[in-house]
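Help wanted!
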Amino acid sequence: MYKRESMPVRNGGSMSQKRLVVVGGNAAGLAAASQARRRNPDLSILVLEQSPFISFSACGFPYFLSGDIPDFNSLFIRSPEFFRRERKIEVLTRHRVVSLDPSAHLVTAHDQEKGEERTFDYERLILATGARALSGDFLKGSLPGIFAIRRAENALALVGFLLARKPSRALVVGGSLLGLEMAEGLRKRGMEVTLAERSTRLLPEFSEPFGEEVKKEMMRRGIQITFSSAVSSFTGEPESSLREAVLEDGRRLPCDLVVLALGVAPDADLAQKAGIALGVGEVVATDRFLRTSASHIYAAGDCAALNNLVSGRETYFPRGTSANRSGRAAGEAAAGGEADFPGVARTMAARFFDLTVARTGLDEKEARDFTSSLKVTDSRSRSRAGYFPGSEPVFTRVLFDGKSGLLLGAEMMGREGIATRINTYAAALSARMTVDDLSRLDLAYSPPLSPLWDPVLQSSGLAALEK
Amino acid sequence: MYKRESMPVRNGGSMSQKRLVVVGGNAAGLAAASQARRRNPDLSILVLEQSPFISFSACGFPYFLSGDIPDFNSLFIRSPEFFRRERKIEVLTRHRVVSLDPSAHLVTAHDQEKGEERTFDYERLILATGARALSGDFLKGSLPGIFAIRRAENALALVGFLLARKPSRALVVGGSLLGLEMAEGLRKRGMEVTLAERSTRLLPEFSEPFGEEVKKEMMRRGIQITFSSAVSSFTGEPESSLREAVLEDGRRLPCDLVVLALGVAPDADLAQKAGIALGVGEVVATDRFLRTSASHIYAAGDCAALNNLVSGRETYFPRGTSANRSGRAAGEAAAGGEADFPGVARTMAARFFDLTVARTGLDEKEARDFTSSLKVTDSRSRSRAGYFPGSEPVFTRVLFDGKSGLLLGAEMMGREGIATRINTYAAALSARMTVDDLSRLDLAYSPPLSPLWDPVLQSSGLAALEK
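Answered by r_m:
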């Protein structure tokens, strides 16, 4: 038996038919709810969030560790009260959704405060269940000080541990973007930091020269890095202290804090139990309006498969931008809007100490799947006029179809103006520009701000010559 | 009687028929010659330059004045020897072209070193005669210390005056972008600087709020500004010293150095005398391959009318980017290439002390001529995540067609990431994107580098809502 509830809504009447329920108070869920509100001022909108926290900027957490951001609270961007007051969106925290009945249009949540189940009807529902950090079996033992960071709860637990135990030797497991950001944050906090990467290179999100430069930057800043062997186990005193990590090749790394950065997996259990179709990698399958296989149910964010706007193929890209963008699009569609979701270019940027890397579009493997005439052109340019003090080298790799010249992807690296310059490449991908088109753009120039031929023009122009 | 000359060329034979002559060793002329060489390794290429100098970066000169650039020589980017050795391009300096005979395919230059005339035949010719700084009648008197800056000669004369006379009170006449840059350069050099603008506002290249912010920035840095009255005359001791400027309203401004920034006019005398058609404002008329009305003669750079790629109308935009881009395109066309010149978006950026402004596309007046349903949307965003230290406000003005949503132009202002962000707008103009398209781009995000919704997304998204 469950209590069937309708939320109070404006205008009275049989409004339960017009309720939108969003499962997940993360970036995707809140972007969806907000966009639905913009589209339809009269809709009743309910967000169900299992944790006590919403709107946590996980992307900002490494910069709290580093000390760049002094106030942990500033990482919580919006409160439930903000949504209730400013956007007339009801947010119920500590409500873990336990079942979903697509045919009856009912969703049931466990209210963890009251210890009871509550069932809500909906006209449309958006799944924004997110992703969870992979942790192998490392969190199953009873050794303290091992963390995998994804949600606010994880971050808070780590912060609590730092305050209580004052660890001095950190081990980060995994050399992906997140692992590198965490390593930097802990290093800047003053800890001895080792990063253990099982493969032979860092930063798998980028091509090899980028990982190589980042490695140099990290090592120059005092971060130790081990390659080519995975962590197999940890030793220490159960419930008391951590001593060391043991690698598969037998090496032992002393540590009293471990951050696991082993990747993430979509939280698609709810969808799966409800009979909703999953795609490759157990990700909730969606169409271009972010509709799932179940009528009136949408999915967005880190639980959803998204369209790669360059290749037109399904992709999984659990990042803040795609969460917000797909959430907004799902909210738009669920509230009756007509715009589809154009998809993701997998654009991203990250700064490691003073070195910034940025990318957009297909990587080399994807590009080779997409075309048999891939060309890859590397070029070196400057961030400002060469004669202007502070001018920094910019390295650009451009991927394009050697026959048509169609741009397929780009990566950039340097110490100035990288993350904003990659956006011109991202726009070019959406517009299906060739490298010729790009090389002929009219871009801004001023000696302290850009060379006469901006790195975007220089790199695409060189690519156009190699066509 | 003239000596008819053929330059030595590779491969021997009757090569005079394959000679390209470029009139002007400025940015446009050298870009043209270089691109022609890339396109055709066998072409004989001759550049005729009237002054002793080529390849001078006038854009960099204010930063030499300011002390940002310590070495004046670094403003001369390439030497004649570089072109001869590396690109097999013959550059003759101190050769002032005195006549051009399009029907006979002959061009005559006065060799100022030898004091004789030399005539060259050509298969194709590119006019890159540039522009000259307007100076009213102010340079005609015999008062010292009055300069108008355009070419290397002007800059050298000013530098010589600074060294010899050590002036301490500078007056800059004209509040356009160049005038503002010169005022900043002289101020940073330690001089008392007054800027006299005849109208009521600064920075006519941008809309009013931008000039207003720049005014505040300039005044905060100790630059005096007078508005609403033009300079009518100067007083002082002829051949000896300058005393003051007299404004039309009677005010008197003491000064011992004057920099005129009154705008520029195309140097189209040679073209006109040769019977080549001029367009509005006495600019050499060109088609989309930068061909003039005379067969086999092209024009590029600051002497040429260029296509506005947004409106499709003729425009005059004497800037470094358009000089280089149109020069390159003219060289391509003259050497037998097939690519046309896409035109200019009038993209530009400038930094005044710590404040950067950037623009692209139509201004409000042009946009109103172009569409009867113009919309202008202002928005405020941040350069980084709001919670990240160093995050700076970004002000964006977007011009678009209220019916179709077609982007027509954009202006941005702030203290971080402005000049590179405007380029995404510039790319969108070339791709004929709507503000909706723009607001749905997948742009880079990382807390220290950009907010989740980049200013480009935020400003175009707001515009899309107001459609």
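OP: Thanks! One thing I noticed: Chain A has a mean pLDDT of 94.
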